[in-house]
Structure formats: structure tokens, C-alpha cells
Amino acid sequence: NCNMTETIPSPSCFGQEQERREFERLMGEALNATGLKDGQDNQPDNTCVICLNQPRNCVLLYCGHVCCCFRCYQALPQPRCPVCRQAIIRVVQLLTEVTS
Ligand SMILES: [Zn+2]
Ligand SMILES: [Zn+2]
């Protein structure tokens, strides 16, 4: 702190203090941003790749991909897997329980 330079008003010391606070504020923001990013990364990878909204709840056969919700499957312009472009011969709907 500034006790050493008590006789002389020390704007530089004050400036350092402000700088430190600014630094801490920025660090806090950076940490918050990182935390947010981690949260997104930790999301269960179970979201429909098309609407990014509904849980994936159907299996596309025969490629076997579970990549979209049944609604998006029905809305597909062509019956092709959005991941591998293989023709969809059949679709099995999964019964998903929402536990949370
Ligand atoms: Zn969807
Ligand atoms: Zn596929």
C-alpha cells in the first residue's frame, strides 16, 4: 500500500492500485468466460444435430446413427442420414425419459 510515500501524494501509487483492480476485474471476467465455455463443453452430447434443441430420439437404419430428433427426421427433404448421407431405410424411435 501507499504508507511509505505518505508525505508526498503519490498519483503513481494510486494508479497502480487502480491498475491492479482493473486487472483483477479482467481476470474475473476471463474466468467467468472460461467457466461458461466449460459448461457448454460439458453438456451431454445428446442434442439433435439439426435443430440443436430436441434430444436425439431416433435411430436411423441402417447406418445406425442416432443424430436427430424424430421431428427433424420427418422434416428431412430426403430420407438420408444428415451425418453420413446414407439412405434411411427405417427409423426406430427411442423412448427417452426426461429425468431432470
Ligand atoms: Zn431436431
Ligand atoms: Zn448415418
TrEMBL record:
Domain RING-type, chain residue ranges per copy:
48-85
Swiss-Prot/TrEMBL GO biological process terms: protein ubiquitination
Q: Which UniProt keywords apply?
A: Metal-binding, Zinc, Zinc-finger
Which branch of life, at top level?
Eukaryota
Query: Entry's Gene3D superfamilies?
Result: Zinc/RING finger domain, C3HC4 (zinc finger) (3.30.40.10)
* Record-annotated membrane-spanning stretches: none
Gene Ontology MF, one: ubiquitin-protein transferase activity
Q: Name one Pfam family in it.
A: zf-C3HC4_3
Signal sequence interval, chain numbering: none
Q: Which PANTHER family does the UniProt entry name for this protein?
A: MITOCHONDRIAL UBIQUITIN LIGASE ACTIVATOR OF NFKB 1, RING-TYPE E3 UBIQUITIN TRANSFERASE
Q: What is this protein called?
A: RING-type domain-containing protein
